[in-house]
């Protein structure tokens, strides 16, 4: 029996924006009206951990209220329809999982988890509430958000590169391809692997050889998924 077509999807903040989650960094350099340097760096954590915890506690509640949109649901439906779908996301929300996707790699961590400040292997789910000063791991160290801050390494990058190299089709959704090292993932696909970018600004963002699909995630992804489900393959011709 032939293996099912393997779609690898690389998603950015554009897909979550359609669920009401603001993009990571706005055009003015702010994230939810905060300078990124004040809430998303190791130095910010050292200077003012309370401010950082408050910021992520607010983002966490925003994400809990958000719901998966048509793009999230379409990708999950493709997987349920028999395709092999692996999702690599820059997003720290859980909307892909709540839509039903089972194979999601979070490059930049997961806001609905806490982790130890001294042992990154120690992670704890946050089913409700947030993280406060005095909340500690089993080793007695303060808990912090399980997210990758600017200036920190991306532990799952090698795994993401391996996934991309195995793709029959790489679909990029809602990302400017500007944040490194994630943006370099496209260099790991085989030379003959088709790749498309779904984004309202796709024409200006798409590297050479990448098909630009100038539309929102909520429109473009379901249209592609419906086509692939009807064809039984990942061709666009």
UniProtKB/TrEMBL annotation:
Protein name per UniProt: NAD-dependent protein deacylase
EC number: 2.3.1.286
Main localization category: cytoplasm
Keywords assigned: Cytoplasm, NAD, Transferase
Domain Deacetylase sirtuin-type: 1-231
SUPFAM superfamilies: DHS-like NAD/FAD-binding domain
Function according to Swiss-Prot or TrEMBL: NAD-dependent lysine deacetylase and desuccinylase that specifically removes acetyl and succinyl groups on target proteins. Modulates the activities of several proteins which are inactive in their acylated form.
Domain notes: 2 residues (Tyr-56 and Arg-59) present in a large hydrophobic pocket are probably involved in substrate specificity. They are important for desuccinylation activity, but dispensable for deacetylation activity.
Residues annotated to bind substrate: 56, 59
Pfam families (UniProt xref): SIR2 (PF02146)
Positions of NAD(+) binding: 90-93, 174-176, 217
Catalytic reaction annotation: N(6)-acetyl-L-lysyl-[protein] + NAD(+) + H2O = 2''-O-acetyl-ADP-D-ribose + nicotinamide + L-lysyl-[protein]; N(6)-succinyl-L-lysyl-[protein] + NAD(+) + H2O = 2''-O-succinyl-ADP-D-ribose + nicotinamide + L-lysyl-[protein]
Similarity section: Belongs to the sirtuin family. Class III subfamily.
CDD domains reported in the protein's UniProt record: SIRT5_Af1_CobB
Record InterPro entries: DHS-like_NAD/FAD-binding_dom (IPR029035), NAD-dep_sirtuin_deacylases (IPR050134), Sirtuin (IPR003000), Sirtuin_cat_small_dom_sf (IPR026591), Sirtuin_class_III (IPR027546), Ssirtuin_cat_dom (IPR026590)
Active-site residue list: 108 (proton acceptor)
Localization annotation: Cytoplasm
Lineage: Bacteria, Pseudomonadati, Pseudomonadota, Gammaproteobacteria, Oceanospirillales
Originating gene: cobB
């Amino acid at each position: 029996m032939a293996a099912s077509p393997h779609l690898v999807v690389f998603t950015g903040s554009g897909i979550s924006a359609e669920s009401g989650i603001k993009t990571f960094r706005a055009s003015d350099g702010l994230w939810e009206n905060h300078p990124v340097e004040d809430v998303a760096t190791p130095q910010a954590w050292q200077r003012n951990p309370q401010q950082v915890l408050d910021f992520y506690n607010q983002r966490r509640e925003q994400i809990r209220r958000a719901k998966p949109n048509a793009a999230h649901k379409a990708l999950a439906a493709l997987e349920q329809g028999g395709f092999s779908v692996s999702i690599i996301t820059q997003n720290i929300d859980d909307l892909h999982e709540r839509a039903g996707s089972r194979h999601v790699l979070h490059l930049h961590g997961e806001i609905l988890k806490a982790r130890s400040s001294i042992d990154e292997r120690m992670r704890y789910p946050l089913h409700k509430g947030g993280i406060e000063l005095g909340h500690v791991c089993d080793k007695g160290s303060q808990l912090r958000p399980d997210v990758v801050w600017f200036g920190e390494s991306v532990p799952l990058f090698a795994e993401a590169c391996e996934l991309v190299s195995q793709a029959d089709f790489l679909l990029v959704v809602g990302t400017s391809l500007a944040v490194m090292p994630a943006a370099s993932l496209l260099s790991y696909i085989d030379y003959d692997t088709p790749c498309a970018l779904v984004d309202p600004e796709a024409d200006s963002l798409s590297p050479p050889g990448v098909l630009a699909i100038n539309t929102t995630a909520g429109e473009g992804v379901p249209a592609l998924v419906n086509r692939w489900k009807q064809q039984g393959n990942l061709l666009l011709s």
